[in-house]
Amino acid sequence: MHLDFVSGLWSGASIPFDDKSSLEAGQVLPAKLIPSDQDRGSVPMMQLARCADFVSGTQPLEAGLLKLLLRWYLPLDQKLIQEFTSVGNDLPVKKRAAHLISRAFVHSLDIKGPEQKKAVLDYILRHSQAVPQGQKKLNQSQPLYPEQEILRALSLLAGQSEGEIYLIYPGRSRKRHPEKRWPHRLVVCLSTSGWGEIWIQLIMHNSNLTAQIWAENSSFLRLAKVAEQALRRRVSTLGWELAPIKTANKKITGIAELIEPLGLDNYQHLDILA
């Protein structure tokens, strides 16, 4: 048996953010059961229930998968769920969540074809097999939903270190003053020989500057806090006011972990009436 509302809920095309066919927290959807021999690409009922955390004994991969797809406004079809499930099963548990977030981000862009999507995914996950084409396709892409943040990437060489600079722009449909044509966030990722990977995010709002630093090596984070006062004085001469720097001893796998999708932040459960 299958739930028939799933295949018609979203198409792969862009839907306006305020479209009434989008799921909202607490929304009740009409549904009907149909025999499996009449299946038209719907998701099997028990598979959907496991993904949505409806049933006990949920496998770690399936728990929360539907929530991830909803958060990135992706179509809830069998092919996509099977893709995420298959890929996730082949990944170590520690790498699974970050990879699936990055995969969802790539699917939220207007990138055509599996080869191009794979090139972008390899690039944003910083895989060894990544090719320049992945960066190019990312920089040419647009989000399927205009209000989602826009990402652009540049390669960086700094002495013995290398990495990327990511420019993050507000979504296209927001009302913007002329200065909003500039990115509102800047993220720098550096691979260093002594401290490992370091991620630095700068959030700019008017003349205020907020800095966040993630690193696996806690010694670098201590050095960053020691240098905070000197950095604050330096940026003040440029007209910026630096807020207290936030640091975290954490590994960031890819830039998609720092991109803000459209939301459903308050999504908890779907209510299905029998």
State the main characteristics:
single chain, 274 residues, alpha+beta, 7-stranded mixed beta sheet, two-stranded antiparallel ribbon, 9 helices, 9 strands, 31% helix, 20% strand, disordered C terminus
Low-confidence spans: pLDDT under 50, at least 5 residues?
1-23, 53-58, 265-274
Helices and strands, in order, run as EHEHHHHHHEEEEEHHEE
**Main sheet?**
7 strands, mixed
Classify the secondary structure makeup into a structural class: alpha+beta
First-residue to last-residue Cα separation: 14 Å
Query: What is the rounded Rg?
Result: 21 Å
Mean pLDDT: 77
Number of helices: 9
Shape designation: globular
Per DSSP E runs of 2 or more residues, the count of β-strands stands at 9
Tell me roughly what share of residues is in helical segments.
Answer: 25-40%
Into which percentage range does the β-strand content fall? 15-25%
What does this 3D model show about the protein?
It is a single chain. The chain has 274 residues and is of the alpha+beta class. The chain is 31% helix and 20% strand. The strands form 2 sheets. Strands 3, 4, 5, 6, 7, 8 and 9 form a 7-stranded mixed sheet that branches. Strands 1-2 form a two-stranded antiparallel ribbon. It is globular and about 55 Å long. Helix 4 packs antiparallel against helix 5 and helix 5 packs across helix 6 (114-124). Residues 1-23, 53-58 and 265-274 have low confidence and may be disordered. The longest helix has 15 residues, at 93-107. Strand 6 (196-205) and strand 7 form a beta hairpin. It has helices spanning 5-9, 45-51, 65-71, 78-89, 93-107, 114-124, 132-140, 218-226, 228-236; strands spanning 2-3, 33-34, 150-158, 161-169, 185-192, 196-205, 208-215, 241-242, 246-249.
